[in-house]
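User: I'm curious whether this sequence folds into something compact or stays loose and floppy. Could you predict its structure so I can see for myself?
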Amino acid sequence: MVAGPLVSASSVVHASLLDQRGDRLGRVHDIIVRLADGPYPPLTGLRARIARREVFVPSDRIARLDPRRVQLSGETLNLARFERRPGEVLLDDDILGRRLIDVSAGRLIHANDIALARADGWWRLVGVDPRRASALHRLVPWRTRSGFVDATSVVDWSDIQPFVGHVPTAIPMPLRRLRRLHPAQIADLVEGASHDEGAEIIEAVGGDPDLEADVFEELDVEHQREFIRERSDEQAAGLLAEMAPDDVADLIAELDQDRRASILQLLPSDHQAKVRRLLSFNPQTAGGLMGTDAVTAPESGTVEEALAAVRAIEDLPPQAGSVVVLVDGDGRLVGSAALSDLMRADPRQPIRDAVVAVTARLRPSTDLPDVALLMTDYNLTALPVVDDDDRVLGVVTVDDLLEAIIPHEWRRRRSGDIGD
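Assistant: Here's the prediction. I'll summarize afterward.
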């Protein structure tokens, strides 16, 4: 429980440091916390300057912490020189004025100030004030400002993930908070961040290969190339092996010519074959856009057998699984059935008696406007692509279509950083 007002960290940095009688000892230079110690990190101490010597003041010696003045308890103070310990972060040097991730909103914000409060017997870091100071506020002399933070403007620290790659002692960004975000949100953060900040996010999600692959699939081409360029061919192939073949084909096509063949060669054979097939099609056609993951079922089978086929495929893209592709005894396309229709049908019925199959299909050479028109005419979210013998090659989904036809400048529309 928070006790008392929220003290501004910026009003404590450079505050007067007083002994227990109120006499001035020196000045506070920074505030030390250990970010890994819970959702509201406790202050472990202060970096102070006393008699031209930079010293460490442990938190248990802090009797009062007020704006512009910190009073200590006890008669003596160890004047050992300050040395940063592993895992420690300095609020002024490392956090204040820098960008942070607001995980609750999936956006980047600025730490224009930091809120400190007494909670559970300790002074703790409890939140961030991302608001940019008004012109009037900036004109007010530092020493005459209140030194307190308005609680209504604070973003709770439990929703904050700072960038710490610049901290001298190694503190890798934890993955647990980022897991609260959708891969597309994480990709937006990477694209809105500096290169070093983006690299820190990518390194963090690398702890979960599936999430890393999902994030890479959502990145724009420039950022995909940027982060692939920093990896060896083996590392790049390891990442691409976790991505969907159609996304891999798009990325491979954007790589420098001298890397394409070597990375392709390192992919698992089945994955490699799918990617090579997709690369043979024009990217602005159904063949170049399709994904190779499709749920197929014989039209003579039962509804339950078709639903079992959907459940059997791991990591099936949501839109690709919205239809079941029906084939005849020779494996040729008969049509497609919406998953929602199959779920409403009697599971014991043959599929051809339970639903009306949509016979629309695409050829690999169908251009994107025609794909869009056909999907619109039939109110579909996915359409099968077939060869000249009507054998299924893959499925084009509406999300892939939208990504291909939406103008680049319309993408990643963000609300912008608070405080910019």
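Summary: The two ends are 32 Å apart (CA to CA). The first helix runs from residue 9 to 12.
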